[in-house]
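job 3f2a | input accepted
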Amino acid sequence: MDSVSPRITRRQFVASSSAALAAGSFVSQAFAASSPVAGQNQIAGRGPFRVVIDTDPGVDDALALLLAMRSPELKIEAITPVAGNVPLELSLPNALRMVEIAGRTDIPVAVGAKAPLLRRLVTAAYAHGENGLGGAVFPEPKIKPVAEPAAKFISQIVRKYPGEVTLITIGPLTNIATALNMDS
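job 3f2a | predicted structure (184 res):
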């Protein structure tokens, strides 16, 4: 049976994402005062956490990227899209689009793995729509990814900042496995 995804406009996507961001922000602020780790990074005087976000941006990861790029507690060193819920042909431009929407074109995006290492790729178009963003219409991204492949780029960042980088993995771990294999 063919599924039909309702088409929504960029304005509708941004509006619904903004509402979700506002709700998430409200909830996090409501609990921040009682949280033992709230603002801990700044209190310790360390500044923001250095992170690499490895992702397969369908709708859920796109929203996570937007949230992360707004956080003053994160210094995003790179975003590394990978094939997962959506194929790389969608996850890469979706990551670039989110960087543009957030106005964070200072964050490098490196092209990740096109397929899993040990099995065939299984995507989730039924959940994320044919474009990975629930059918929201966006122009083609204007920015381009960096020249290095994601695994090499991750390895370079981790070597540049030893002991300082946290990998936030919200997609399949193919880029991470490839980076580890390169360094072994």
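job 3f2a | The radius of gyration is 17 Å.
job 3f2a | closed
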